[in-house]
Amino acid sequence: MTAAASTSEDPGLWKTLTARPAVLVALVVFGAILAAAILAPWIAPADPARMSVRARLSPPLGDYIFGADAFGRDVLSRLLFAGRVSLSIGLGVAVLSTALGIVIGLAAGFFRRLDAPLSRLIDAMMAFPDILLAIALVAILGGSAANVVLALSIVYTPRIARIVRAATLVIRELPYVEAARALGSSNLSIMVWHVLPNIVSPITVQATFIFAYAMLAEAGLSFLGVGVDPSIPTWGTMVNEGRQYIDQALYLILFPGIAISLAVLSLQLIGDGLRDALDPRLAKDV
Amino acid sequence: MLKYILKRLFGMLVVLFLVLTITFVIVRVAPGDPAALMLGPDATPQDAAELRATLGLDQPILVQYGKFILSAVQGDLGQSLFFHRPVLSVIAERAEPSAFLALFSLIISIVIAVPIGIFVAYRRGGVADQGAVSTAMLAASVPSFWTGLVLQRWLASDLGWFPASGYGGPAAGFLDRMGYLVLPAIVLGIVNSALILRFTRASMLDVLGEDYIRTARSKGMSEGRVVMKHGLKNAAIPIVTVVGLTFALLVSGAVVTERVFNIPGMGSLVVGAVLRRDYPIIQGTLIVVATLYILINLCTDLLYLLIDKRVRY
Question: Which residues contact B105 (CB under 8 A, 6 or more apart)?
Answer without folding.
Answer: B184, B185, B186, B187, B188, B189, B192, B250, B253, B254
